Amino acid sequence: MDRKFWLLRGLRFFLFAALFIVVIGFGTQALWNWLMPQLFHLPAISLPQTYGLLLLSRILFGFKPGGRPGGWAAKKRAWQQRMAGRMEHLSPDAREKFRQEMRARCGMGWMHKPEAAADMAARQPA
C-alpha cells in the first residue's frame, strides 16, 4: 500500500513536470513566432528549436531557479544598514542637514512646495 502510494505520487509528479515543460515550450514558441518575425524579421522556429533556445538562455543567464535569495529586498536592507551605520557617526545637526538635502534632491518633485524649489535654486551656483 505504501509503496503503491509513493509510486503513484512519483508518477503524478513526472506527469505534471512533463506537462509543464510542454506548455512552456508551446508558449515560448507561440510568442516567438508571433512577435519576432514581425518585429525583427526573424524566421519562425519549431518546437525542438524552442527547447534549444530555452536551454541556451538558461546556460547563458544561469541555472538559479529563483534568482538570489531575497533579491532586491536583501540589497535594499543591506543599503539601509550601511546608511544607518554612516548616519550613526554624524552629529544630530549634520544628520538633519543631510536628511534635508536628500529630501530636496531625491524627494518626489510633485510633492515639494514651490518655495522649497525656489530656495534650492537660490542655493545652487549659476
Query: Structural class per helix/strand content?
Result: mainly alpha
Give the rounded overall mean pLDDT.
Answer: 83
Strand content: under 5%
**Rg over CA atoms:** 27 Å
Written as H for each helix and E for each strand, in order along the chain, the element string is HHHHH
Measured distance between first and last alpha carbons: 84 Å
Instruction: State the share of residues found in helices, binned by percent.
Output: over 70%
Total beta strands:
0
Largest sheet, described in full?
none
Explained architecture:
The chain is an all-alpha fold. Helices cover 76% and strands 0% of the residues. The protein has five helices and no strands. The model has no long low-confidence stretch (mean pLDDT 83).
Give the helix/strand layout.
Layout: H1 2-40, H2 47-61, H3 72-88, H4 92-106, H5 114-123
Helix pairs in contact: 1-2
Concise synopsis of the structure shown:
The chain is an all-alpha fold.
